[in-house]
Backbone:
């Protein structure tokens, strides 16, 4: 009776309710049609994975390295809220997610459990899995703090992907004892019997032999073992005493004196006939293709190198050049031996700009260490093992 009265008093309500019911039916029908019209009935799917470089867009991937940016291509991917590689979750950027593509970087962290699966979690709770291998990087060896360390001393190796457990093996097959391991640095005690040569680091993800040589004895053109040349035999230390830097490879040079600004202080070197056969140790290939070589030497600053200039002559066939390569301050090893690495092509270019182009000489090469620059230097620096060695380790 009450409902009847309402409809009798408001006859338009029946039409209104009928309209609402029709609209609801149409909406449901449209939703159904829209879902049916979606690819794969609206279910997410991965068609393939590729690199992001447009020039290599046809390069499809079944795996990628740590940190690589990849493109996941498929259908109905817009609801992705999490992506996991093995058991490591990567970060997602909403603007890099569309219905057909997701741009994402492979995690750099190593997994605890390797499943070789990629898992996408969607906002509606659905999960999509896809076979995908994360290629864990083998060790990368880029440098040593000092390439000369005595047995029992601690060597510092720098690089990346130093995942434990790992071993460090020196030339001669002797393993070092690990002191400390970080992501980009290893400290290891040098074993008795370690020989000059590459260092090998091995993890469960691979093995790498260094390009650099530990105790590199190749192509040394200035070492003072024994002293040769024109200048300053008094700088050579043969028997280190209290307060001297320790010996790392026989004799070394120590300059301990006040050097005034623009004072001409020749430390070591001479022409080929004064230096002897050691002046012939620079290989012809370094003179012809200096970009393939480094100049290396060890230095120990008992006081900071914070003023003046050290000029280096190495590889000149026809005399000295007073505008030779300048090794500039500041540099401070705080009383420890460290290896200095300088691209030899930079040195060659500095000579050429001053009018002295490198040329092969069977008689050997001129050598000089010269302090000559602006600013007073309270100098206490030691040097050893000046050498020109290949970048590739051969």
Residues:
């Amino acid at each position: 009776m009450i409902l009847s009265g309402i409809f009798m008093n408001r006859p338009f309500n029946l039409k209104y309710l009928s309209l609402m019911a029709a609209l609801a039916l149409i909406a449901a029908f449209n939703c159904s049609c829209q879902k049916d019209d979606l690819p794969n009935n609206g279910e997410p799917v991965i068609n393939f994975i590729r690199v992001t470089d447009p020039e290599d867009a046809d390069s499809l991937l079944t795996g990628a390295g740590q940190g690589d940016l990849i493109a996941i291509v498929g259908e109905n991917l817009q609801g992705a809220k999490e992506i996991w590689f093995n058991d490591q979750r990567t970060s997602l950027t909403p603007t890099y997610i569309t219905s057909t593509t997701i741009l994402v970087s492979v995690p750099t962290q190593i997994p605890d459990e390797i499943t070789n699966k990629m898992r996408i979690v969607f906002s509606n709770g659905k999960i999509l899995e896809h076979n995908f291998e994360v290629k864990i990087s083998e060790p990368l060896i880029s440098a040593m703090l000092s390439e000369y360390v005595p047995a029992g001393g601690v060597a510092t190796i720098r690089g990346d992907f130093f995942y434990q457990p790992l071993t460090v093996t020196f030339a001669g097959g002797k393993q070092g004892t690990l002191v400390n391991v970080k992501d980009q640095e290893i400290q290891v005690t040098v074993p008795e019997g370690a020989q000059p040569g590459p260092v090998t680091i091995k993890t469960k993800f691979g093995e790498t032999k260094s390009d650099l040589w530990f105790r590199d004895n190749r192509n040394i053109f200035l070492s003072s073992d024994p002293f040769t040349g024109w200048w300053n035999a008094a700088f050579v230390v043969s028997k280190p005493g209290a307060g001297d830097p320790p010996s790392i490879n026989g004799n070394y040079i120590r300059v301990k004196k006040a050097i005034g600004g623009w004072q001409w202080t020749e430390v070591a070197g001479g022409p080929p006939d004064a230096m002897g056969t050691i002046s012939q140790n620079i290989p012809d290939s370094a003179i012809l293709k200096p970009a393939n070589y480094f100049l290396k030497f060890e230095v120990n600053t008992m006081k900071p190198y914070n003023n003046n200039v050290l000029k280096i002559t190495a590889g000149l066939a026809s005399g000295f050049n007073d505008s030779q390569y300048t090794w500039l301050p500041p540099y401070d090893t705080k009383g420890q031996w460290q290896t200095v690495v300088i691209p030899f092509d930079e040195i060659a270019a500095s000579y050429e700009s001053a009018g002295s182009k490198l040329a092969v000489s069977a008689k050997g090469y001129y050598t000089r260490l010269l302090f000559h620059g602006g600013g007073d230097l309270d100098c206490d620096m030691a040097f050893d093992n000046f050498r020109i060695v290949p970048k590739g380790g051969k």
